[in-house]
Amino acid sequence: MKLIRVYLALVLLITLSACHSTGSKIGSDILASSEISEGKPTYNILEDTNIVHVDNTQRIVTLKSYDSIEDGYYITLSPFTADITSTLKIYNATYGTIYIGDILDGRPKINDSVAKVSPSKSQELNIIYSEVAID
Question: Would you state the CATH architecture of domain 31-128?
Fold first, then answer.
């Protein structure tokens, strides 16, 4: 009988400790770009630009855009929460309306919104990712 009470107390303790939330986001340690920015900035989202393919093994992303995309740093935003999901570097490697970029941070998903970073943020990212080059 005492053993059953001990087991019930342990189960209750484990359940209560598992329900306790720390308030941290999963993967927040890999999103350096969201830690750099102050507050909740607004982004200039590229309207006709979509992520059509993500390769997490080679860390590349394929974008489709009917407008021309300049080389540089971009972020991806979740279409539901507007949280930053990744940081990308897009190169002048284009095949018509298809663009290729490197995933620098985070985990983008297909259909995430794409936004260009500000010039000051671009300089910050240039310092962090100074040795990024296309193969």
Answer: Beta Barrel (2.40)
